[in-house]
C-alpha cells in the first residue's frame, strides 16, 4: 500500500476515499485491524475476501453506519463521522452524520428497497424528504433514472412484483438519485439467481464508465478484472494484498490470497 | 346425488332449528318486553348517551395511541433511564385492573386537593388549594387513555420491531434523519402489524367505556340505560337496547378495520399490478416484500 498522508491536498488530486490505520472492534472481537488504503477519484476499487473478513464492516465504516474505533477515514478530504479540533476528535451529531451520508450511495446485498413504495416512489423518496426537492421534479428525475437502469416500464411496480435483478437495479437508481460522489456496493449480485447477475453488472459497468468512484465488494472476478482499477484482498480484518485486479488475480503473492482465489476462481 | 359434506349439513340444520326455536321462544317471553325495546331504541336520551360513548372511545383511543407510540419509542431507546420510565409505566398500568384505576382517578381530587410547598416531613412554607374540579367526562377519558397507552405501547413496539433492520439502514444510508426514517419508512411498514390489534383495541375500548361507572360517570350508553331502568323498573329491554347499540358500533368498526388492513398491506402481495386486487393472490404475512 502506498504510504498515506493527511488529506489536505485540494480538489482534483485528492483521493475520494482515504483510510488511515482504521480499526474496528465489536466487543472484544477486532474485525478491522489498521486498514490503510486509498481510492482515487473515478476509480473502481474491488474488495475481495472470505466470509467474515470484514468487507461489509469496512464499507459501513465509510459512510459511518459503523463507528470507527481507531484511525481515520476521509471521504473527499472530509473526516468521516468526526470533527477534528486541535488534537481531539469529536463525534458528529446525528444530523451532521446524515448530511455526510447523502453524498455517498450504498447498494446492499438484499437490496433493501422500501416495500410499501413503488419503484418510482423508492427513487423519489430521499430527494424529496432529504433534499427538499419538489415531488414533481423528483418523480421526473426518478423516471430518467429508471430508464437509465432499463426499467422505464416498471415505475409503478412494488418491489415484491420485481425480480431480484430488477430490484437491485432500482436500488442502484435510488442511490443515484441523491447525486452521490461515491458509490458503495456490498455484494450486489450475491443474492441473485445466476441468470440475473449480468443485468446488474451491466448497470454497474455503465456507471463506472461515467466516471463514478465505486467501492465494490464482490466475488464476480470477471467484473473485477474488466472494470476494476484496483483491488484489495481482505482476510481477518487486514489488507493482505492489493494491486491491479488483473495482476492480483493472475499472480497472487501471498499464500492466503492464493488459497482464497483457488477456492473462488 | 351424493352429499359432499353430510356431517356439516346435519350440524347446520340442527343449529338453524335451535336458533329458530330460541327466536320463537324469545318473541313470546314477556320479560324481553319487545314493545319497550322498540320504544327505547331511538329514545333521545339513549342516542345522546351513545354519542357520549363514542366520544369516550375516540378521545381515549387517540390519546392512548399517541402516548403508546411515545412509550414504545422510549422503550426502544438506547438511553436506560428513558427505557426504565417506559417500563415502570407499563408495569403499573398493565398490572392493575382498569376498574380500580378508574376509581382512583375518580378520587384524584380528594387525594390531590392541594400543593404543598416545602420540605416533606420537615417544613411547610405554603399550601396552595386546588379548586378546579375536572368534569367527570374528562376524568373518564384520562383514566381510559392512560390505561390504553400501556397496551398500545406493546402493540406499537411489536410493530416497529417487525420492520427489517435493513430498512432503517437503507434510509440512513440515503441521508435520512432518524425522524424521517421513522415517519416515512419504519412506521408505515409497521402499520401492517399494528393495525389489526389496534382495531381490536378500539372495539374493546368501546366496551370498556361501560366501566366509567367506577369514576362515577353515568352519561354513557350503559350508564344511561341503567338510570332509565332504575326509574321504570324494567331493566331487560334497556339492556337489549344498549346491547344493540354496542353491536351496531362494533359492526361498523369491524368493517372499517377490514378496509384499513387492506390499505396498509400495499406492496406486500406478490401479484402483478393487473391482478393487484385479486383476493386469491397469495399474501406474505411475515416477511417484508419477499426480499429474502
Ligand atoms: N453488528 C455486529 N456486532 C458484532 N459482530 C459483528 C457485527 N457485524 C459484523 N460482526 C462480525 O464482524 C466480522 C466481519 O463481518 P463482516 O460482515 O464485515 O464480514 P464480511 O467480510 O462482509 O463477510 P461476508 O462475506 O459473510 O458478508 C464477522 O465475524 C461478524 O461476525
Ligand atoms: Mg458482508
- Write the H/E string of chain A, N to C: EEEHEEEEHEHHHEHEHEEHH
User: What's the gyration radius of chain B in Å?
Assistant: 25 Å
Q: Which sequence of strands runs across the widest sheet of chain A?
A: 8-9-10-3-11-12
Mean pLDDT of chain A: 92
Q: Note the gap between the termini of chain A.
A: 24 Å
Helix content class of chain A:
25-40%
Q: How many strands, which pairing sense, and closed or not: the largest β-sheet of chain B?
A: 2 strands, antiparallel
Main sheet strand line-up of chain B? 1-2
Helix content of chain B: 55-70%
How many strands in all of chain A? 12
* Biggest sheet descriptor of chain A: 6 strands, mixed
How would you characterize this protein structure?
The complex is a heterodimer of chains A (265) and B (292). Chain A has 265 residues and is of the alpha/beta class. Helix content of chain A is 35%, strand content 26%. Chain A is globular, with a radius of gyration of 18 Å. Chain B is 68% helix and 4% strand. A two-stranded antiparallel ribbon of chain B has the order 1-2. In chain B, strand 1 and strand 2 form a beta hairpin. The interface between A and B is medium-sized, with 37 and 32 residues. The structure holds adenosine-5'-triphosphate (ATP) and magnesium ion. Residues 26, 31, 49, 51-57 of chain A line the site of adenosine-5'-triphosphate. Chain B: Pfam families: BPD_transp_1. Chain B: Keywords: Amino-acid transport, Cell membrane, Membrane, Transmembrane, Transmembrane helix, Transport. Chain B: Its main location: membrane. Chain B: It is found in: Cell membrane.
Defining traits:
heterodimer; A: 265 residues; alpha/beta; 6-stranded mixed β-sheet; 4-stranded antiparallel β-sheet; 12 strands; 26% strand; disordered N terminus; B: 292 residues; mainly alpha; 11 helices; binds magnesium ion
What can be said about this structure in brief?
Chain A: InterPro entries: AAA+_ATPase, ABC_ATPase_HisP-typ, ABC_transporter-like_ATP-bd, ABC_transporter-like_CS, MetN_ABC_transporter-like, P-loop_NTPase. The complex is a heterodimer of chains A (265) and B (292). With 265 residues, chain A is α/β, with parallel strands linked by helices.
Amino acid at each position: 500500500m502506498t504510504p498515506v498522508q493527511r488529506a489536505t491536498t485540494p480538489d482534483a488530486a485528492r483521493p475520494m476515499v482515504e483510510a488511515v490505520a482504521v480499526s474496528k472492534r465489536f466487543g472484544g472481537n477486532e474485525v478491522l485491524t489498521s486498514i490503510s488504503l486509498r481510492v482515487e477519484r473515478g476509480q473502481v476499487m474491488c474488495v475481495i475476501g472470505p466470509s467474515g473478513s470484514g468487507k461489509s464492516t469496512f464499507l459501513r465504516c465509510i459512510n459511518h453506519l459503523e463507528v470507527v474505533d481507531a484511525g481515520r477515514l476521509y471521504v473527499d478530504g472530509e473526516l468521516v463521522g468526526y470533527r477534528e479540533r486541535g488534537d481531539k476528535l469529536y463525534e458528529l451529531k446525528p444530523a451532521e452524520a446524515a448530511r455526510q451520508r447523502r453524498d455517498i450511495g450504498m447498494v446492499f446485498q438484499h437490496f433493501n428497497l422500501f416495500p410499501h413504495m413503488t419503484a418510482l416512489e423508492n427513487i423519489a423518496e430521499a430527494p424529496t424528504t432529504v433534499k427538499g426537492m419538489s415531488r414533481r421534479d423528483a418523480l421526473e428525475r426518478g423516471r430518467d433514472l429508471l430508464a437509465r437502469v432499463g426499467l422505464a416500464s416498471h415505475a409503478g411496480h412494488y418491489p415484491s412484483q420485481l425480480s431480484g435483478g430488477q430490484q437491485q437495479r432500482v436500488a442502484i437508481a435510488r442511490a443515484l438519485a441523491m447525486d452521490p460522489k461515491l458509490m458503495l456496493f456490498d455484494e450486489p449480485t450475491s443474492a441473485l439467481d445466476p441468470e440475473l447477475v449480468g443485468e446488474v453488472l451491466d448497470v454497474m459497468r455503465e456507471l463506472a464508465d461515467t466516471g463514478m468512484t465505486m467501492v465494490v465488494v464482490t466475488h464476480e472476478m470477471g467484473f473485477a478484472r474488466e472494470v476494476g482499477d484496483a483491488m484489495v484482498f481482505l482476510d481477518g480484518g487486514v489488507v493482505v494484498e492489493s494491486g491491479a485486479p488483473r495482476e492480483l488475480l493472475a499472480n497472487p503473492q501471498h499464500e492466503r490470497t492464493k488459497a482464497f482465489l483457488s477456492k473462488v476462481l | 346425488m351424493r352429499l359432499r359434506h353430510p356431517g356439516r349439513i346435519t350440524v347446520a340444520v340442527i343449529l338453524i332449528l335451535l336458533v329458530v326455536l330460541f327466536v320463537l321462544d324469545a318473541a313470546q317471553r314477556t320479560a324481553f318486553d319487545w314493545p319497550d325495546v322498540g320504544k327505547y331504541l331511538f329514545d333521545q336520551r339513549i342516542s345522546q348517551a351513545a354519542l357520549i360513548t363514542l366520544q369516550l372511545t375516540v378521545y381515549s383511543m387517540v390519546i392512548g395511541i399517541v402516548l403508546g407510540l411515545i412509550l414504545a419509542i422510549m422503550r426502544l431507546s438506547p438511553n436506560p433511564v428513558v427505557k426504565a420510565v417506559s417500563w415502570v409505566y407499563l408495569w403499573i398500568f398493565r398490572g392493575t385492573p382498569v376498574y380500580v384505576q378508574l376509581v382512583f382517578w375518580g378520587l384524584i381530587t380528594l387525594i390531590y386537593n392541594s400543593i404543598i410547598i416545602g420540605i416533606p416531613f420537615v417544613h411547610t412554607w405554603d399550601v396552595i388549594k386546588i379548586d378546579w374540579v375536572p368534569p367527570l367526562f374528562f376524568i373518564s377519558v384520562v383514566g381510559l387513555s392512560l390505561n390504553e397507552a400501556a397496551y398500545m405501547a406493546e402493540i406499537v413496539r411489536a410493530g416497529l420491531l417487525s420492520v427489517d433492520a435493513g430498512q432503517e439502514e437503507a434510509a440512513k444510508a440515503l441521508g435520512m434523519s432518524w425522524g424521517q426514517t421513522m415517519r416515512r419508512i419504519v412506521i408505515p411498514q409497521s402499520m401492517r402489524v399494528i393495525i389489526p390489534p389496534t382495531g381490536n383495541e378500539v372495539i374493546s375500548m368501546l366496551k370498556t367505556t361501560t366501566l366509567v361507572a367506577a369514576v362515577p360517570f353515568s352519561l354513557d350508553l350503559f350508564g344511561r340505560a341503567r338510570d332509565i331502568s332504575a326509574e321504570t323498573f324494567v331493566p331487560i329491554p334497556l339492556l337489549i337496547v344498549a346491547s344493540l347499540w354496542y353491536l351496531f358500533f362494533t359492526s361498523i368498526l369491524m368493517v372499517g378495520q377490514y378496509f384499513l388492513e387492506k390499505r396498509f398491506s400495499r406492496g406486500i402481495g406478490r401479484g402483478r399490478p393487473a391482478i393487484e386486487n385479486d383476493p386469491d393472490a397469495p399474501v406474505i404475512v411475515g416477511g417484508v416484500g419477499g426480499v429474502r
